[in-house]
Design goal:
The structure holds two protein chains of two kinds.
Chain A (H helix, E strand, L loop, with lengths): L6 E4 L8 H9 L5 E4 L4 H9 L3 E6 L3 E2 L3 E2 L1 H9 L6 E4 L2 H12 L4 E4 L14 E4 L6 E6 L5 E10 L4 E3 L6 H7 L2 E10 L9 E3 L6 E4 L17 H12 L1 H13 L4 H14 L1
Parallel strand pairs in A: 1-2, 1-10, 2-3, 3-6, 10-12, 12-14
Antiparallel strand pairs in A: 4-5, 7-9, 8-9, 10-11, 11-13
Chain B lengths: L7 H11 L6 E4 L3 H11 L6 E4 L3 E2 L13 H5 L3 E2 L2 H9 L6 E4 L3 E2 L5 E2 L2 E3 L4 E4 L6 H7 L2 E5 L25 H4 L7 E5 L3 E5 L6 E6 L5 H6 L6 E8 L5 H18 L4
Parallel strand pairs in B: 1-2, 1-5, 5-10, 10-11, 13-14
Antiparallel strand pairs in B: 2-3, 3-4, 6-7, 8-9, 11-12, 12-13
Helix pairs in contact in B: 1-2
The chains are: A alpha/beta, B alpha/beta.
Amino acid sequence: MVRDGDVVALEGFTHLIPFAAGHEIIRQGRRNLTLIRMTPDLIYDQLIGSGCASKLIFSWGGNPGVGSLHRLRDAVEQGWPAPLALEENAHAGMAAAYAAGASHLPFGILRGYLGTDLPKYNRVKFIECPFTGEKLAAVPAIRPDVTVIHAQKADRKGNVLMWGVIGVQKEAVLAAKRVVVTVEEIVDQLDAPPNAVVLPSWVIGAVSEVKGGAFPSYAQGYYPRNNAFYKQWDPIARERDTFQAWMQRHVLSTNDFDEFKRSLEQEVTHA
Amino acid sequence: MPEAKYTSDEMMTIAAARMIRNGASCFVGIGLPSAAANLARLTHAPETILIYESGCIGTRPSVLPLSIGDGELSETADAVVSIPEIFAYWLQGGRIDLGFLGAAQIDKFANINTTVIGDYHKPSVRLPGAGGAPEIAASSKEVLITLRQNKRAFIEKLDFVTSGGHFTGGNSRAKMNLPGKGPTAVITDLGIMTPDESTKELTLTSLHPGVPVEKAIESTGWALKVAPQVATTEPPTETELRVLRDLNERTARAHAGQA
């Protein structure tokens, strides 16, 4: 469902990051994507380093608590493996832009960006409140061609349930033209309480069960964030050749996420 | 009683933690601010409401999170809300007493850069970017900043203003009608700086024990203003040190050996 040249959002704020789906985009050799994510995280480091992206729309691009995303930096600083255009936001602006996208409004509005240099380089404009005269920031809506998320559960009809840190996924799903969801498990009954975050099946294009599909991020109620892997990523991604060897061995030479995880386990056993 | 031995980083975290008033709602950045805020919660400020931008409100993690959205933050929170909600209703809604930020670079008016070093389009160092910081800096009632002090970090002119402090000093922030009053202290491994009441220029008001004033001046990339009376920061108490070291040990154990 992801095509070359698409505008694609893989969302999940530290939690429920759709790694398995991201790997599949890399295996399929997609090119010239505009990638959107508030926090690019390791999955976009991998997509960018694999040459899938020509543009990144984001608001914080680091390896949380560890340091840089070296592949993102290499693309921005050295143009490797391809130049990467940036559209850079603050979290609050990006959240408002997704909410506007979900509402099919042309722009989102916030009390933000005042006094920062960011509007010199992105598409933020300032407007005056028609009621109070307050100066507010307007951010163009985000409308991805495809949004991909990972959630805890779906039922057999394709209704999707998620909980914990829910980030901006609901907005990213409702803003998109097409939606792909991977889940930890498909169950007969969701048994969701009335106010739970449930995305009804009719706003979702496809649901697929991928157990552990958010590794090395986490799925609350299933497995914790693998903080040790986030630390190990730093030396892997630091150099082009160690990165490429790792991607070749664990992602490009495996057929799916189960094989990917087995290949990582073998490496740990042999180490 | 034997003199307590501690590192300059421990002194920085403890000095920063002491700035947090018990009961304050505190929007916390990851890294040094998160360590200081949790230390405050585990010592003198047990009723502090810790808020992380992942949407976790009133969280009480037993170890420091590596990321801003580790599972323990949501499991121990009073409420977990979406990202649009945390920034719109809680931060822009004026419900945050204290924003607590780190920085890669800071200038004399406590503006901070976490975006690029060098030209934006051809940066020598591409930093992670803004995250939640610009709006935390604008909308929190008050802002604390903590970072290690050296000439690469404390610089005369920022290549990029990511989050505004006191802008060009004087009444420049007041003229922008931002909701919050901006940075009230910068806590480093050498001492504490506070903005001058009228010029808003950062002024050294406290040095940590054993740090000579020359060291603070040499570690600053502009001519650092020094208050006429510079206080000496109270050294860490045994309790502060024990709680901080226990927290760091628990954290190191929790983050190792999973992969």
